[in-house]
Design goal:
InterPro entries: 2-HAD (IPR006328), HAD-like_sf (IPR036412), HAD-SF_hydro_IA (IPR006439), HAD_sf (IPR023214), S-2-haloacid_dehalogenase (IPR051540). Keywords: Hydrolase. The protein has ten helices and six strands; from the N terminus they run E-H-H-H-H-H-E-H-E-H-H-E-H-E-E-H. By secondary structure, it is an alpha/beta fold. It has two domains: 149 residues, HAD superfamily/HAD-like (Rossmann fold); 80 residues, DNA polymerase, domain 1 (Orthogonal Bundle). Helix 9 links the parallel strand 4 and strand 5. Helix 1 crosses helix 2 and helix 2 packs across helix 3. The chain is elongated, with a radius of gyration of 18 Å. It starts with 10 loop residues before the first strand and ends with a helix.
């Protein structure tokens, strides 16, 4: 449904990694450093091949009970991926990976755009598949504009589960009608938007991620700084 036919939201919720924070770029760099420290191998994976296998393990473990911390899932996903490619795993590899996540910077337009949205009277919240201590380093780079942070750690569930969004909405004291969710991840956030029914703006940064076959977001823009224009057209700014 067009946004201009819907009421102005109280809250804007955001996915963090890939939407606000440079996830792909940071993860590629971290994996390249990890692989550079391994013994030379005849069939060593590229960073892309390694990340594809890592993502498969991570998403499977996030869906496998009991709930585990993101740090634990990262550790096990990295160990299994090393095993897949016949590479030796060291605990220091996980330390390097998790440390790199906390240090990943925002996209260039993000801080100024968050300031614009905050000044327009919106409350801003992050909903992210991570741990409190990991995301703290990223939030610290967002100019103090974020009002709330809801993590998988606090919710006891990972996106696209309804549980993490129900926890977020309850914590904020809102219904799905009171928010617009802004994200870059179709297979996690769009699946939840489809199933729960909240409004959603997709930040399509040209990474090759594909829309779900049975869901279309309410608006699509290439970068976060286009969001105020969408809201202006809807009569919200």
């Amino acid at each position: 449904m067009p946004l201009n036919s819907l009421p102005r939201p109280q809250w804007l919720t955001f996915d963090c990694y890939g939407t606000l924070i440079q996830w792909d770029e940071g993860l590629q760099a971290a994996v390249a450093r990890i692989l550079a420290g391994k013994p030379p191998a005849h069939s060593a994976p590229t960073a892309d091949e390694f990340l594809h296998a890592y993502d498969q393990h991570e998403h499977r473990l996030e869906r496998t009970p009991p709930h585990r911390s993101f740090a634990d899932i990262s550790r096990e996903s990295l160990r299994l991926t090393m095993q897949d490619f016949g590479l030796p795993y060291r605990p220091e590899d996980t330390d390097m990976l998790i440390g790199s996540i906390s240090a990943m910077p925002p996209f260039p337009e993000v801080v100024d755009t968050l300031a614009t949205l905050k000044q327009a009277g919106f409350h801003l919240c992050i909903i992210s598949n991570t741990d409190e201590d990991i995301i703290a380093g990223n939030v610290a780079q967002l100019g103090g504009h974020i009002d709330r942070v809801i993590t998988a750690e606090s919710a006891g569930a990972y996106k696209p589960s309804r549980k993490i969004f129900a926890h977020a909405h309850q914590s904020l004291g809102v219904t799905p009608d009171d928010i617009v969710h802004i994200c870059a991840s179709p297979h996690l956030d769009h699946a939840a938007a489809r199933d729960i029914g909240f409004r959603c703006v997709w930040i399509d940064r040209g990474t090759g991620r594909q829309l779900l076959p049975d869901y279309r977001p309410d608006a699509t823009v290439p970068t976060l700084d286009r969001v105020p224009g969408v809201f202006r057209s809807a009569g919200w700014l």
